[in-house]
């Protein structure tokens, strides 16, 4: 409480100072002149005052300046800048409309502050993806993919080809908060990681926060992937789409009431499985998704949005084994301006992730999932050009369905069984300030208070000495304890409650107009845990809440960086070092069974984790030849010590590599515009091999050699290094100039030199030679692709 009083006292004094001078406020929104879409992150700059601001997530800006006559520059990547003279003698509402520099198909491109590296802002460890006119990054099967683009950034890796999720700065996949129009997405992958769930045609803006995370975000430790969908063209009706080898997409947008209301609907579907019967193959693997959004602008002060997403995956081996999973999100939002200085957003959000199996050869179905309801209210208060406040609250009610077994055949002999549902509530309130101390020093500081309550459930186990995991000293291994009783609680009861104060601070010190030094610290709490003992999350992994036996994960992250804009932004250099310390990272006993386990607490221990490293990003931002080089040197480790002096813990209580530890990570992206007709792109990636375990011996059973693994060491070995080269060429027909139908062809080759990267290495005995052998599993060799994109 002392900290909050101190913060409010500082704010009060600064507010008095702000209003003691004769100033006026200019505010408004910035739109794309072509379709009336609001634009995020537009620079509104007053050069004579060396002061400015940027538009927020809804295209709104506000700045208070000394009265006078000034020039204002409004600029945004890919759009023609506007320069106007403003007489700021009183309060002004001023909207701007920017025109695209060139008409082109919208693709996904990593911006990363391409226009001019913003060395002044205290925000660091952030990369941006935006819908722009630069052609798509080469990816497998020609499908533009946001998650695959993220993997080209420093500090971001994956578990390998065909692996779902992504890892940021040595963190686990469940430590990433993924938001689509503010709604939580629990699984970001289609087809077990081959594609992401985000249709690039629908996406408007994407930011990845790796550190220095603003106080408005919480609930995860490693990163925040903040994605906003387009609002739809409120001037004209348009169709956009693409046809590829394995999937196609179509987007429609247009006005409902011209200049006031619009809609957008986008869908994708894969169809490669339709050709499998031609090869006498009855397996299946396909996905489809649907994005939609409508909005209505009542007046300059009130906007309403309704956005949705629905996606589903089906993977089956004949009809005997079918895996289905998908996401559903709905968000109803109201933007309201209380004044030219106070912007608010009220959101009511529903999010659901379901996952299940049909095991026809056994005779049952398995269904599980997680659902949450989120109500949040956020405010942005623009006090003056040197001081801005953000504050708000949000409350999330969560239902966990760990699993249900349902027989699907009368003769299966399977009995219906329902694992006990779990419930929780997470509340948070935050306050954050962005404060320009002087021309050189800018601060962003604040705090988040979070409360997590594990609510009552129908039945909960009771263990002797409250210990669900026991250590068998005779056999020297951890074992699951037997419950001695069960207890039942009402839904309104609190089984456990956790409170955490999460301070955040970032600063930027300007060394000169092109160079700055930045520091950041953030503390974060995570109350939800993805229970998975595989290197990459699978649809069967179960989310579990913190409670009596599972503690919240707590993170302290420190980062320092040097940022330089070279030759007026033609080149840029970003270097950062980071250190992350995590308490209460869950670990698993040897042989832990996580599927359909109603006593999941009996296979879990609480440990700690740490990660540290160096990131370098060098970019060429201008000219026909553009691109970047990203390099990360890092370490990610985990440790679980014994609870008493008689217990060894996991890995003898010593640090061991996490499954997502990658010592070296190098990525190179290049783009060369040969002419208005031809654009060439290439990617090269290199990563240290993923940690794993190899056998240390063998024993014989009925003439068969069985490998032996050391239970006392984890992740002591590695798979071979991962590397590949991708290329693409984009052909834009000259006939585009004189017609409304715009088109392009994208030709690509994924993994040009056919590297057989190891997804896993398994050990077995050869049935013919009876000798042990290592079998490497690789997913992709060389993969050509062609995609036809169009816009009408």
TrEMBL record:
Pfam families cross-referenced by the UniProt entry: CarbopepD_reg_2 (PF13715), Plug (PF07715), TonB_dep_Rec_b-barrel (PF00593)
PROSITE patterns: TONB_DEPENDENT_REC_3
Span of the signal peptide: 1-20
Protein name in the entry: Collagen-binding protein
Domain TonB-dependent receptor plug intervals: 123-220
GO cellular component: cell outer membrane
Origin species: Polaribacter filamentus
SUPFAM superfamilies in the record: Carboxypeptidase regulatory domain-like, Porins
Bilayer topology: Multi-pass membrane protein
GO BP terms in the entry: siderophore transmembrane transport
Keyword line: Cell outer membrane, Collagen, Membrane, Receptor, Signal, TonB box, Transmembrane, Transmembrane beta strand, Transport
InterPro entries cross-referenced by the UniProt entry: Beta-barrel_TonB, Beta-barrel_TonB_sf, CarboxyPept-like_regulatory, Plug_dom, Plug_dom_sf, TonB-dep_rcpt-like
GO molecular function: siderophore uptake transmembrane transporter activity
